[in-house]
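Case study.
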Amino acid sequence: MQISLNEIKKIADLAMISLDESELVKYRENLENILNYVKILESVDTSAIELDQCNVLAKKIELHERLDESNIGIGRSGLINSIGYESGLIKVPRII
Amino acid sequence: MNYVNTLTQACTALKLGKTTSVKLVEQCIQQIKIKDKDIGCYLFVDEEGAMEQAIASDKRRMARCSLGELDGIPIGIKDMISCKGLPLTASSKILDGYLASYDATVIKKLKSKGTVIIGKLNQDEFAMGSSGENSAFRITKNPIDLTRTPGGSSSGSAAAIAANLAFGTLGTDTGGSVRQPASFTGVVGLKPTYGRVSRFGVIAFASSLDQVGVLGHKVEDVAMLLSNIAGYDACDSTSADVPVPNYHTLLDKNIAGKKIGIPEEYIDTIVDSEVKICLQNSISKLKTLGAEIKFVSLPNAHLSVAAYQIISTAEASSNLARYDGIRYGPRLGSDGNLYDLYKKTRGELFGAEVKRRILLGTFVLSAGYHDSYYAKAQKVRFLITQDFQNAFKLIDAILCPTVPTTAYRLGEKINSPLNMYLGDVFTIPANLAGLPAISIPGGYSKEKLPIGIQLIGKPFEELNILNIARALEKT
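After joint prediction, the assembly is written out as follows.
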């Protein structure tokens, strides 16, 4: 994986972090090294797994159910207009 | 004064009237003044506040109105955890000068039991690091050997126990940040099941992985601390409503017949012969105690560090977006352009490791890369969790080293981030799968450096791994 200095600048802009030229070069090298290492994941066959199966999303759905039950956070009043859950998110009616 | 070192000893001495809370606080303060200029455990010592709490505790005890076994015990708190009125910096310049406006749930619980908060403990900035060298304020050194790292990110929490600067400490563990420093400093560190302890009031690094952990000299110390901080909290929507046993009163059960699994994939990963010998010794001890040793397979465990790097940095890039110079801490570059203010503040006040992780997290979440990195890592995480579920159909707990090596020298890995990340290879899987895990001292190297042994348990079965750990500790 190779990253250009322009890509690092763009990422730094997205992350709202100012970097000087020497930092751009350093972080480009760091990110390339790490991204080359994480390539190890490419070899794993995950085709049978849907993202919805992954536990983090399941926890989010559980979280919303608990919000509904315990009336904390946005609370019941905040859910009055909700029309259900999808992919771990609260669905609300279209307004535009 | 007769010094007591462990939390349980201190509780017993208080109960028997052999010491007072004031004496315990004085002991800690004295030790901090003597030792901490060299070690660097504390970022802030609340000497006055701790003494006030101790006096109040002693009055309660005199009046036979004690709030419980921890009443009057001095405890240190990692600077990721909010204690009302005390500094809360996460060891970052971006929060320099910030005072917490409320207590985290774990602090509320400890205060309701009369525990004395003695101060805020040093750490790697925003819990990002494994050596204690990433603090923006001062490096923490290993009390066993001051030329070596105490591990991290809960560097101050572990070193404070090892140097007797607190009777118990709280840390946080996102990828091993309680267990790895416990291993390097020769103390006990426990990461509970995800959801067992409330994260409300704890600075978020990677929300799906973070857990508050406990450290002490002995297994019974961490068991007592866990009993007092665990439990459902409506303020943390990922908190689990599962009954909490009184762990420390249920220890010392016979472990004969327990099935302990050794991950066969880990055997070749352990290259340090002293760590390997230490594991073999622990296996022998468990066999002597009547436990049954089995090899199990965790075929995807070698992918843990890679999946963790993607998931944790993605979550960190989102969680740390709030530190922009507007809401918290110092502000730089207010020449009228809001975006320049954000960038200058974050660019200059975040440390190198934090910036590296935010950049990586932003990259893996960016358009075109989300599916190939973030979604892929989440799916691999699912596979790793499944591996543990399958293994736990055959066994009661997993035994493995906590860290592949003993404590390395300060500066040895600071310029090689990937090498430092790989040191967490045995601790990260428990975070990805949300499992409880404990590190206990398993032996010493020829250089007299501690070697930690880790036990990983089924979800919410902290008592099981505490019991096995206690049995190993006593053998």
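Observations recorded in class. The radius of gyration of chain A is 21 Å. The longest helix of chain A spans residues 21-38. We will return to this complex in the next lecture.
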